[in-house]
Write a structure and sequence with these properties.
about 40% helix, 9 strands, about 25% strand
């Protein structure tokens, strides 16, 4: 059996849907200056565009969701799940063509891809490939075959629809890589142990929170984005608070800003624009 010390230091991952989070501030003053007929036409057009982005048809999975954002950071959040970065870029272009977009100011965005970390199965895969020299064509083929089997089995998790929960919590995060504390210099076995214990906490909340982790190394300013969806927003506090006592978070995690929103059904956009959820 291949000693863990001889494993490649990078755990294997599976990637799926491309994600785009958009955060906007709304120009309420300019909007209130419009006459009723003009604003009605703008809203109808925006709803038509957003409905088309939401899902391909009434039976298709939800690909775009709209949220009314709480706090000073912005007014609206749009979350998009697509099959490629090109498709996400097209979403941006489609939205920019609407007249409603003239009243939206982007204040933040986040680009990432759904990521499943494979600390557990990486060990088995590397052991199976150990009959070949690392990074030879034979070794690469063995690893690729294992990943292909994993991707097929985990397709629903790799290509999820946007959950139909009432509340969203989103935040980015890094693993520390400073001079004294550096996640990337910790031996593979130790990282595997810590990630296993970390995952046990999340699984205890699985019946109340839908969690989607996306990787963003090389795509955005942080290493991962975390989406939490739930019917009760207090559960976000409980889950994240408990996780902060876990070694992975307590010692090795850095967190960015947190964003929270309330689901805004697209057909209720007109009500929102008149000050009602």
């Amino acid at each position: 059996m291949l000693p863990l010390s001889e494993f490649p230091p990078v755990p294997l991952t599976l990637e799926g849907s491309a994600l785009l989070h958009q955060f906007f501030r709304f120009d309420w003053k300019a909007w209130r200056s419009l006459d009723a007929d003009e604003s009605k036409l703008i809203v109808a057009s925006a709803i038509e565009t957003l409905t088309g982005l939401e899902r391909a048809n009434s039976n298709a999975p939800i690909q775009t969701a709209l949220f009314s954002e709480l706090g000073h950071k912005g007014d609206l959040i749009l979350v998009h799940f697509r099959d490629s970065l090109e498709a996400l870029n097209q979403v941006e272009l489609d939205l920019a063509q609407t007249e409603l977009y003239d009243y939206l100011t982007p204040v933040h965005s986040y680009v990432s891809v759904v990521e499943l970390g494979l600390y557990e199965s990486s060990r088995k895969t590397y052991e199976a490939a150990s009959k070949f020299d690392q990074h030879t064509p034979e070794w690469d083929a063995e690893v690729a075959s294992s990943l292909e089997r994993g991707a097929s089995a985990m397709a629903p998790r790799l290509y999820p629809s946007v959950p139909e929960a009432k509340y969203l919590c989103f935040y980015p995060m890094d693993r520390k890589r400073g001079e004294q504390v550096n996640w990337y210099t910790v031996p593979f076995a130790e990282r595997q142990r810590m990630m296993h214990e970390h995952g046990l906490i999340g699984r205890r909340y699985g019946d109340r929170v839908k969690q989607i982790i996306s990787g963003s190394i090389g795509m955005d300013d942080w290493e991962w984005g975390v989406d939490l969806f739930a019917e009760d927003p207090v559960v976000f506090k409980k889950l994240i608070y408990e996780m902060r006592f876990d070694e992975v978070s307590a010692v090795y995690a850095l967190f960015g800003q947190f964003y929270i929103g309330v689901r805004l059904p697209i057909e209720k956009l007109d009500s929102w624009l008149h000050g009602k959820l």
